[in-house]
Amino acid sequence: MITKTEQTDFDTIYEIINDAALAYKGIIPEDRWHEPYMTKDELQEQIKDGVLFWKYSEDNTVLGVMGIQFKGPVTLIRHAYVRTLQRNKGVGGDLLSHLRTVATTPILIGTWKDASWAIRFYQKHGFRLLPEEEKNDLLKKYWVIPSRQIETSVVLASENWADGLSTGD
Hints:
Elements: E1 2-4, H1 10-20, H2 40-48, E2 52-58, E3 61-71, E4 74-82, H3 91-102, E5 107-112, H4 116-124, E6 128-129, H5 132-142, H6 147-151, E7 153-157
Parallel strand pairs: 4-5
Antiparallel strand pairs: 1-2, 2-3, 3-4, 5-7, 6-7
């Protein structure tokens, strides 16, 4: 079952993010990896900045979480994570499909350039990689991330993304 998270789910969101993010260790640039991958303070800041988390649960156990953030003319999918032992069972795909129904504007997703499995996942679900220059502009406009993360990331866009939308207001 997919539902919005509650304030009481904070520790579960934190746990899932940091469990699932272990997949990035040794893959993303060493200077971008730290433990925990996301601190509780960072997670709290993301929520304060408007990231709304949804959860996928079975038998009262949360198996995955995915955030959505509305940023004017675009919707961002943020922090999509599935428990390590629950991967490749459709949890992420179901969460993504649900959030697509919540979005009313074109969707953008940022991920690490070297996380090939994540890129394949989003492409399998109809998203396309954007060119480097457009990616850089979008990451600067809609995300608050360090320049090093911009260098080492990609952006994927939903089918209704119009090239050049990033230059408009």
